[in-house]
Fold this sequence. Notes:
Blueprint: H1 11-22, H2 29-63, H3 73-90, H4 99-116
Amino acid sequence: MAPNVSVSLTPHQEAFVEPLISSGRYHDVSDVVRAGLRLLKEKEAQRQAAMGQIEGAVAEGLASGPPSEFDGIEAIIAKAEAENAAERDQVGLGCGENSWDELGGLLMENQRHTALD
Length: 117
């Protein structure tokens, strides 16, 4: 059995604990402290798990070797534009400056058909 431990509370902590006890939610200060320690234990377990994930990610990054050459922002933009163009082609929109007008027209046509049904 664990030895009895004395805990000193600040006036602010006492003011917090008193209503918890007087409401019957907790039997005494020891119950409140035990509940707090349970929460602290859960929080510590979450922190340890997060640290383990971080350590794993760092180890994975280090094991992957040196970083590859950065292609530059232009290459990233070109790739995104190509993907957007492919998506527009799938829905039948052109790539010109009237693409938004075409999309608006398709949406209006769809609304007219929906209203007629």
